[in-house]
Amino acid sequence: MLTRASCKRQVTSLRRRTLPRNTALVARRSVSTASTGAQTRANPRVSTLFGVLMAVGVASTAYGVYQFYTTFTMWPPEVRGDLRAGIKAKHQGDLDLSARYLQRAWDTAQTLPLSAFNYEPHLKLSGIAVSLAEAFEGTNRPQEAYDIYKTILLQLQAAKGLSNQERMRAIAIAHKLGEMAEVYQQDPEEAEQWLTYAVEEVLRVIKEESAATKGKAPSAQEPEGDVGAMLAELDLPWWVRKIDVAAPLEALGRFYAREGKDEYAVTLYLQAVGMLMQPPPNQKNASIEDRCRGAQLMNNLSDLMVRGPPPTNLKYAESWAQQAQGVIEKTRTLPGAQQETEAMALCEQTLTAVLYNLGALLEMGGKYDAARQAFQDSLEQAKRIGMRSGAMEARGALRRLERSVNTPR
User: Residues 383, 355: contact at Cβ < 8 Å?
Assistant: First the structure.
């Protein structure tokens, strides 16, 4: 787990932290055992979520790369050839060659006037930058990738008259920088800077669009960074998806949770959950994907509740874990759910973590029979979906629980 002390570095280069590439339960921290006797007896580890799902899954969903390889006629002739060659090399798996072509395209693009790119020039420029940075990441050159992302974001922030899509691109890149700052162990202040900008800017975009559709200007008295208004009540424009808003909210919430600012984290998580779980107009339920991601964040909230004062901390934590379980189980029964295989895979993986966490919480509360059943359910769920790491976690918890219960005191 990152702390301010561990993140401080005497050099500016990024150092990669190894992350799992398969979906796995990640036990992020030991829950405090100082509150109750039951907690001292069990001392289970609670997994707040799948680290890879949140650090990679949500980020990649919100972070859409500009799909310019479908046509190259929109690009100035000066960069068209290098772009085509760079994308072709990328699709052939030669990322080093791709990076060389894309670097040349980027360097050339920086010398051209914005008028050469016609409509939404910053969207096209950032598309080149994003693809180049991705190639750098793929060849284990994170510092160069980070620098490219940072350069294009600063350009977007300095630009005047950005289109809505260009503003959303800036939000996505800021979110990406915040995630990279965590993964590559930059100073917490830097991660906070990028993630705060992403959240504040997406709120500005939504409020401005909502005010425009209602024929009034947004209030100048509202703090720009305020997340006080329930986002679920705001009408999202067609060009903004829920996940585009929820992802930076979750990322900033996760940052504050790591920094021990739980009240900020809870507020951000609640806003993200409320938005994801809100059904679209004339619909009874949110989409399958939104419900599954909402269940993930409920699991995060469960972890945060444990940190609160006893005895209500366990009560609230169990409640959120049970809500997450209920959302997933209902989602399974919704029409068309089984056809959305990718979204349902997320739900099924999350359920493994939720059941494990629920078992740990029940164990901490001295409810050993119920805890045993939850761990067993987590084990069966992990086995059913072929999640070996989840099965290992559940088996370990069952063995620990038996030892704890049977140990003479």
Answer: no
